[in-house]
TrEMBL record:
GO biological processes: iron-sulfur cluster assembly
NCBIfam families: SUF_scaf_2
Name the record gives this protein: Nitrogen fixation protein NifU
Organism of provenance: Tenuibacillus multivorans
InterPro entries, alphabetized: NIF_FeS_clus_asmbl_NifU_N
Amino acid sequence: MSFNNLDTLYRQVIMDHYKNPRNRGQLEGDHITVEMNNPTCGDRIDLQLKIEDGVVQDAKYEGEGCSISMSSASMMTQVIIGKPVEDAIKISHMFSDMMLGNDADTNEYKIEDLGDIQALQGVSKFPARIKCATLAWKAMEQGVEKE
């Protein structure tokens, strides 16, 4: 697949998550809530996590922001649900490395194994947008630390 075709596919994946968000809404019952915002661009997220026995049982979010920010939140919730907290943190660190242009693979995970998240790789070329892409991930890290 050529670079242009891959770039187009990645844009389509990002826009799909933006227009058809996964796990958007409110959790019922006991859960952890983390509110974060990116004051430089106005992105805002309210992330809710249900963690039981060290596993992310459910995750939902509400917020507003650019397509990168909201798509990243949608993708992140899809990936962390059902994962042990330690794995969610490892994936978050891997995502941060990818955003910074560092080697993003770990022993346990490779970026191509994480579904739609690889569509955000191109954001690393736009330093001003990295904070948009990482907002939900930082909220998740803060949330699991509360557990």
